[in-house]
Amino acid sequence: MPYYGFYWCDGDDDEQFIAKIDADAETVKKLLDEYRRSDPDGYNNVDFIDFLQSHGISAEIVEPEEWIYF
Q: What is the Cα–Cα distance from 32 to 34, expressed in whole angstroms?
């Protein structure tokens, strides 16, 4: 299952998350556009994963157990 990185700018801060999604990139982009249109003022990463799952796509947000300075 591929990993996808999503990013956006929220004011002065850059935000990002990584998700493991069982779909090709074109499908993910198409469904992301559909999801954005469904809630133009309040979309977020958790609801996007729920949206993908409601379309029968296995998806989960990937978060590290711990951040370690490299």
A: 5
